[in-house]
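[09:14] KT: can someone run the structure on this one? pasting the chain below
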Amino acid sequence: EVQLQASGGGLVQPGGSLRLSCAASGFTFSTRYMRWARQAPGKGVEWVSGISRDGSKTDYANSVKGRFTISRDNTKNMLYLQMNSLKSEDTAVYYCTDGSIRGQGTLVTVSS
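[09:31] RB: done, structure tokens below
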């Protein structure tokens, strides 16, 4: 069974940091370009970041560039998102996805 399980969300103050993790199983993780996406309350899904199969190339939405860092560990089938300098507008449910499969998300709330 293909599974993507995100974790690491929580409540953080503006300017704070969080690290999200995504555990992948049921498919060959190292062969997939992986992405993080998010959905804020009442809004559509927004692509946040992507990483190539070997981790050598990363892409970011303009809204998070310079603040978020995506990484992966193919030996552990894990995807990560380090989020720094968080803003209230980063509040959303964050998902990891390979573009066709979207796992269970984790809620990030940025509030004072």
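[09:33] KT: thanks! Residues 70 and 81 are 5 Å apart (CA to CA).
[09:34] RB: yep, looked fine to me
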